[in-house]
Design brief:
By secondary structure, the protein is an alpha/beta fold. It is built from 14 helices and twelve strands. Strand 7, helix 6 and strand 8 form a beta-alpha-beta unit. Helix 8 crosses helix 12.
């Protein structure tokens, strides 16, 4: 069996693992009833739907969804159609929920969106908006690593084989002239695939020398004595790169465009409100995190994590294309055809109504 084929199969098997562990609870953790935004009595249903099912991660990089739910933006726009929610711990489980019809719309990172689109032959999803940029850092043990050169020979964690941060770190390692086998993680640097929930404990125990991770894990590591060696934003033009997108089932988009437009209006309104009310928005996001995960973030973690994320309606499509190219270069993805992954029609309609310019799909739209 060719090495590349074996790698693809290994990746497929690994991607399926979260699905097996989450299937029993409906692909993700169904969140509690939303007490902040109930359906108004007598309100007209959007597209005749009883509900729209929205998925997101209990993660600060999904702040648009957290605040949109907590402050009632989604329910307000959907009128008599109930906004229901599911939270997820891994991208593959959210893609599976979208494919099965368990959710209609979701907030998700670039790598699972790319993988979901390519594995379906471009038939399962569209990216319909951006949500967040930034919020990824290389945090290291300052007693062991004081410069970029010191990373060589060390043990560095990423969240998951082939995930967005894993691809970014492997690409950065290659740019240093170092070699790492992408499957095993062995080489000039040892890449340790570690769940974000356990990475701070592993760091505290001394089994990791650092980690390339998203917020709030990065700030948790700093709270444990780690030092930020590199902010990934510094590697991108204008310090912008996509970390969270909004995706929708192609079937749902075709059959219920008014409902999709309503959710996009809520997303745009939520991002505007967050920009105008940063402190209140941060508190709202943390309240929703506590409701979803059972634990709020302490101020020492929440404050720096919040500061490092930039919320935006722009999908930053050119950076998603670049991230796909990095995955190909690392040997984690066959050359993908991403044409048609974006449909920004409804987003740009919402923006025009607000007097805002249209956003670009980098030539990867449906047109």
């Amino acid at each position: 069996m060719p090495a590349t084929t074996a790698l693809r199969r290994t990746l497929a098997a690994l991607a399926a693992l979260p699905l097996l562990t989450l299937t029993a609870c409906g692909y993700g953790s169904q969140a509690q009833e939303d007490d902040t935004a109930r359906v108004a009595a007598g309100a007209e249903k959007t597209d005749g739907l009883d509900s729209v099912r929205i998925g997101y991660f209990g993660n600060i990089t999904h702040a648009t969804a957290l605040v949109g739910r907590q402050k009632g933006f989604f329910q307000q726009e959907l009128g008599g159609t109930k906004a229901t929610y599911a939270t997820f711990n891994a991208g593959p489980s959210e893609i599976e929920a979208l494919n099965s019809g368990s959710i209609d719309i979701g907030w998700i990172g670039p790598s699972p969106a790319i993988n979901g689109y390519t594995r379906s032959g471009g038939k399962n999803l569209r990216i319909i908006a951006g949500s967040a940029s930034g919020g990824v850092k290389l945090v290291v043990d300052p007693g062991k690593i004081r410069s970029v050169g010191d990373v060589r020979g060390k043990r560095i964690a990423t969240p998951q084989l082939g995930n967005t941060q894993d691809v970014a770190f492997l690409n950065w390692v290659a740019e240093q002239g170092w070699k790492v086998d992408p499957q095993s993680g062995r080489g000039d640097v040892t890449v340790v695939r570690s769940d974000n929930k356990v990475t701070p404990d592993a760091y505290r125990a001394g089994s990791l020398d650092g980690a390339w991770v998203p917020e709030p894990t990065a700030s948790r590591l700093v709270a444990e004595g780690g030092k930020v060696l590199l902010d990934e934003a510094d590697l991108w033009p204008d310090k912008k790169f996509v970390i969270t997108n909004v995706i929708v089932s192609q079937k749902f988009l075709e059959e219920h465009p008014k409902a999709v437009e309503a959710v996009l209006r809520a997303s745009v309104d939520a991002n505007e409100w967050i920009t105008d009310h940063p402190d209140e928005a941060k508190a709202a996001a943390n309240r929703q995190l506590e409701a979803d995960t059972g634990k709020a973030l302490p101020a020492g973690v929440l404050d720096p994590a919040w500061e490092s994320i930039r919320l935006t309606d722009d999908p930053l499509a050119a950076t998603l294309d670049a991230q796909a190219a990095h995955a190909v270069k690392a040997g984690l993805l066959d050359e993908p055809d991403l044409r048609g992954i974006y449909d920004l029609t409804l987003l740009n309609k919402v923006r025009r109504a607000k007097g805002e310019p249209a956003l670009d799909d980098a030539g990867l739209g449906i047109g």
